[in-house]
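Example (one chain per record):
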Amino acid sequence: MAEPSAFSRVRLAELLAVLSLGADLGMGQPMEHVLRQCLVALRLAGELGLDEDDRKVVYYGSLVSWVGCHVDAYEQAKWFGDDTVLKADFRRTDFSGPVAEARFMLRHLGGGGPTLGPTFTSAAERARLGLAFLRAGRRDAAAILSNHWQAADALAAQLGLTPGVRACVEQTFERWDGRGAPKGARGEQILLTARLVNLADVVVAYHRSAGTQAAVAVARERRGTQFDPAVVDAFTARAEELMADLDGGWDQVQRADPAPGTPLTEGELDAALLAVADFVDVKSPWTIGHSRGVAELAQAAAWIAGLPDAARDTLRRAALVHDLGRLGVPNSVWDKAGPLSLAETERVRLHPYLTERMLACSPALAPIAAVAVQHHERLDGSGYPRGLSGAALTPEGRLLAAADLYQAHTEERAHRRAGTPDEAAALLRAEVRAGRIDAGAAEAVLGAAGHRRPRRGTWPAGLTTREVEVLRLLARGLSTRRVAEVLHISPRTAGHHIEHIYAKTGATNRALAGLFAARHGLGPSTDPATEPGSARDDGLGARARDD
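Predicted structure:
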């Protein structure tokens, strides 16, 4: 009988905890913020006498409630600059009325963006953005919280979490005073499990920066506005005990796993990693479908290269989640059309390390981490994050690096057009000649690519081919008018297509349409003529953010 795979020991709690680390980075929080929040919420549940089923809801709801916070990071960056700074400040604000909301928006509006750099250069630019925000930005801002819970809920459904957990996730942004989202639930209409998670999230953030007294103070300040008075009273009565010993959050959360003896099947793991891949890729409209494409290409190349079954499985799974660390870099960097500054480049070069660090927290996922971290390493030591070279690069890592480079250069980015398959092949072979990419890995990838684009006869949700073209542009963040210009149709016709797309897919805005596109493998078109922009670099030179 064959030995069981190391991956047969992966538990859902481990995978959710890994994903929570990515959510931490995307929210501008240190790693293990969500894990600490989970511990505090569980302790509060014990204080209040919640039964086993509700404690399970608190456990899984804590881990998954915030994972959707990057799904519309592109829109956030467009108005507010560094989306991670915006979300970090979110916990520092009590949105108790219109004045507090307006102050928060004005404090961040015009903080910089993908096209404007870290700060505006003139008051006029800020004023122009302010006028644009009045026209469209407020609508976008109102949709942000709804997008976040819907994305988290969809992922929870894909991972098989219970209706109780999903109901808790839906109320992540509700407030005791009824001023929350998405339904404005108030008081006892909000599940007690959600009330615990909401309080724990904020007090943990304050505890980390200023200690238990600060956590108690913010709970009391928001008693009756954001938080349930009874939950606040239970927390403040035992705050020292509830906030004690939060270091080593990973181990403590894993010990609290409600299903410790129920690992995922390999099929369930593959489905979960695919869902995570699509989820990560919607961080930027330029990368929708990227991880799925890299995984398909790497898997086919692994067959050509003759890798053993176990190595092929590891490579495919590593390819799906190789860009998990992207969540830790703001969209003001990923979506910038101009050259990156030195500081921005360093942030980009960190993302493979972040991927490894998150995955390696789980011993069962550590083999994936060891391959995923190599996707930007190069044979001559010029890659990152560690500058590995030669024999230090594994066969799986070499294939992943080649597949990632080829796939990325057939996709458009904010700073350059998409390359044709022939151009991407020429680039890959040039990297081989320069001693940066392994020759065997490159030829396996090129053989797998076949230098032709696959065609499909039917599209998901009954979409037409034209609607798929519109969806790809919509997911990239193009306005209705710009979609019309690119496709040489009238704005009215483009608007009709968008209405049909929303009706067929169940999406209600661009962010959710982009998530639908990612989950169904409908990444942006690689046609170099699509959405040309004068600010883009038409060259195919290597850039740090080309993943």
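Caption: The chain is about 60% helix and 0% strand.
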